[in-house]
Design a protein that fits this description.
The protein is an alpha/beta fold. Helix content is about 45%, strand content about 15%.
């Protein structure tokens, strides 16, 4: 009996050893496990970052509202005409609303200097490798502005429709811009950004026909992704449709007083 028990124990030990050897010798299983652990750590870290950002954003929002500011976070892909749109807005609303801008870009202060030509105060944030603004960056930048002298604060986010979607900056309205040159399916390709939009700007409508832009399909896709959003079809270059945008800003800013 003792010999049988000993043999059984030896077989069990050999089986366990083979199992351990199989695990060690399976690099695919190891790699999958390591990736899963890394992804879990990444999720935990990202949740912590976003929780901190949300708290800071709420602080920004409380400050901006205490100053009776209408705050806009304008996002788009690079090349949509966002800076031209902001520059024209600030130039045209002069005498109607007092505007100031925080400009985010990966490198250079070209956009801030361009916007400053409108006469509005502009603060540049250069983000380097970071593809979005966050609430802390905005807090530091707006500390350099006289918020009591403004009615509207415009935050020009980094040109990107992915990274900025997760970051609340303390804005009242998220404004997403789509140029007619980008295609009618843009809202379908970037659903997270468009679903969080309060306003959608369709820019460069003056060249819509030339580039074969399908207006009905584009508007259908916008309303499908973000039925709550107010839509403006404009040309920052010619001024087409911009007056409706200005009236909207005046109405919303009046509600902050």
């Amino acid at each position: 009996m003792g010999g049988g028990s000993q043999k059984s124990e030896i077989r069990s030990q050999k089986s366990e050893a083979r199992s351990q050897i199989a695990d060690v010798g399976n690099p695919i299983a190891q790699t999958i496990g390591q990736r899963a652990e890394a992804e879990q750590r990444k999720i935990i870290i990202n949740q912590g970052v976003l929780s901190k950002n949300d708290a800071l954003a709420q602080g920004n929002r409380s400050l901006f509202r205490s100053k009776h500011l209408l705050t806009l976070n304008i996002v788009s892909s690079p090349g949509s005409g966002k800076t031209a749109f902001i520059e024209r807005t600030l130039t045209d609303i002069k005498g109607r609303l007092r505007g100031g801008v925080v400009v985010g870009d990966l490198a250079t202060d070209n956009d801030a200097r361009r916007i400053a030509r409108s006469g509005a105060p502009a603060i540049q944030i250069t983000t380097g490798d970071t593809c979005h603004l966050d609430a802390e960056m905005v807090a530091l930048a707006t500390a350099k502005l006289d918020l009591d002298a403004l009615d509207v604060l415009i935050i020009e986010n980094v040109g990107n429709l992915v990274c900025p979607s997760s970051y609340d900056l303390g804005e009242d309205l998220r404004v997403v811009m789509l140029a007619v040159t980008e295609g009618e399916d843009k809202p379908l390709k970037y659903p997270t950004m468009f679903k969080t939009a309060d306003v959608v700007i369709v820019n460069k409508v003056d060249i819509a026909e030339a580039v074969g832009f399908d207006r009905e399909t584009a508007l259908s896709n916008i309303h499908r992704m973000t039925p709550q959003a107010v839509v403006f079809e404009v040309s920052a270059r010619t001024g087409q449709g911009m007056e409706g945008w200005y009236n909207f800003l005046e109405q919303r800013a009046a509600g902050r007083k």
